[in-house]
Design brief:
The protein has eight helices and 21 strands. With 465 residues, the chain is of the alpha+beta class.
Length: 465
């Protein structure tokens, strides 16, 4: 996510030449040829994180404005762990926008397949106790009635006049890993999301006057009088988002065959939409050439210059300002957070720094002069700090995670060489395809291709883990 608020966005300044391990003129890394991506990788096997293989089925109908939705959701999952599952947790992330414990914008009632507990973590976590412990390889289904009321505001969950944006509106399963259940708090400063790749089948019944861009591939059919039923399906995605409103739309197909749709709110002209369409077509192919073929078939970009946060990524669906650099960054997130997942609360650099580095490569930026104006706020401040640290130091988040983080990756490229760095990231993405990346795993992968011990590199660049 690229923040537009000066509270957190800041200049992407960087750290001192003292941590720069190579000097001299640097050329932009050359993208590997598109055919280097090869066949689509298989989903990464992961016995440490559970629930696994979630499959969500959702049916919702909206009011006349597209800001109120009601219906039903169910999720089927398996236990990948040797430790039985006695409960699962639903993350109702957008209740952070409500008045917990009073009125909340996301309501879950009529739970089946388990017994619902009380809302916790600022009403964003709902424990569901299973009828019996679920052993390894066992599957279960939890269902519930779902209500969504979109608040006013040009936000990733909010409506800007007639245009509604529904990011993180669907409850999703929390993950349990070796550290236990991850029930981190919502953060408005960045992301706290951590989920398995999942399948979604979502049916959205809405007024025909509203266009409904969404994650996945959509098919529209006539509904009741004056209404349309949009059926969206998506495979191996970590979340599902959509928007609703009287958007204008321009469409195209990238040279690599990815369908791109750009939706704009009123006030954004065709020229700007077309320029962003060209940017998206170029960026999606550039990222695919470097990290592996884009697997989702199409991508929707929804534009609103009132977004205070700049841009926000979801699988196959991004929110953005009219800003080509920001859009290139959000589309890089299709790989770094989407295809290659991470714990966004505890390791935000693994998607934000990698997406910003990918943006530089796609735009032909070498990272020269990347470390101007170094300013570490504390002796123990690190690129790899969690959102708990950045929420306590919001002015540092953009500077360190985006700026210093991508500069560290540029330095790693200089140290390894362009070809080796390109191969490292492509192979790393392939080995973590639909899986989860950790700092320790990335460091190990880099060390495996380096001709020298990287311990001092990680220390100098404040990359711990």
């Amino acid at each position: 996510m690229r923040r537009g608020n000066p509270r957190v966005r800041g200049a992407l300044r960087a750290a001192a030449a003292a941590v720069l391990l190579a000097a001299g003129t640097v050329t932009a890394a050359t993208a590997p040829p598109a055919h280097a991506a090869g066949p689509a990788p298989a989903a990464a096997s992961d016995p440490t994180r559970t629930p696994a293989s979630p499959a969500y089925t959702v049916t919702l109908a909206s009011d006349a404005t597209g800001t109120v939705w009601n219906g039903h959701e169910s999720v089927t999952f398996t236990n990948a762990s040797a430790t039985p599952l006695t409960e699962v947790y639903l993350r109702l992330w957008d209740n952070a926008h409500g008045d917990c414990p009073g009125t909340t914008p996301i309501t879950v009632t009529g739970v089946t397949g388990g017994t619902a507990g009380d809302l916790t973590v600022d009403c964003t976590a709902l424990e569901v106790t299973l009828p019996a412990p679920l052993g390894r390889g066992g599957s279960a289904t939890v269902g519930f009635d779902l209500g969504i009321t979109v608040p006013s505001g040009a936000d990733r969950f909010g409506h800007d006049g007639a245009f509604a944006f529904l990011g993180n509106a669907l409850p999703v399963l929390a993950l349990r890993d070796a550290a236990g259940w991850h029930l981190d708090p919502y953060t408005d400063n960045g992301e706290a999301f951590y989920s398995s790749a999942a399948d979604f089948s979502v049916t959205l019944d809405h007024p025909s006057k509203l266009l409904v861009p969404a994650t996945g591939t959509s098919v529209d059919t006539p509904g009741a009088a004056g209404r349309t039923v949009t059926r969206a399906t998506a495979s191996q995605v970590r979340d599902f988002a959509w928007a609703a409103g009287p958007f204008s739309e321009v469409s195209g197909t990238s040279p690599g065959g990815v369908k791109v749709d750009v939706y704009a709110v009123s006030g954004i002209g065709t020229a700007d939409s077309s320029r962003m369409l060209s940017t998206a077509e170029s960026a999606i192919d550039a990222h695919a050439a470097r990290f592996g073929a884009y697997p989702y078939g199409e991508v929707d970009a929804v534009l609103d210059n009132d977004f205070w946060f700049g841009g926000m990524e979801y699988p196959g669906f991004v929110l953005d300002l009219v800003d080509p650099t920001a859009l290139t960054h959000e589309l890089a997130h299709q790989w770094w957070y989407g295809i290659v997942g991470d714990d966004e609360y505890n390791s935000p650099w693994l998607d934000e720094a990698f997406a910003d580095y990918a943006t530089d490569l796609a735009l032909g930026r070498s990272g020269n002069g990347c470390w101007n104006d170094v300013s570490w706020a504390a002796p123990d401040e690190r690129i790899t700090d969690s959102m708990a640290y950045w929420d306590a130091h919001p002015y540092r988040y953009s500077t360190v995670v985006y700026g210093y983080g991508k500069c560290a990756l540029h330095d790693l490229r200089r140290l390894l060489g362009d070809t080796a760095m390109s191969r490292l990231l492509r192979d790393y993405a392939r080995s973590h395809w639909y899986g989860v990346s950790t700092t320790a795993e990335f460091k190990a992968a880099a060390q495996a291709v380096a001709g020298t011990d990287l311990t001092s590199f990680w220390t100098a660049h404040r990359i711990a883990g």
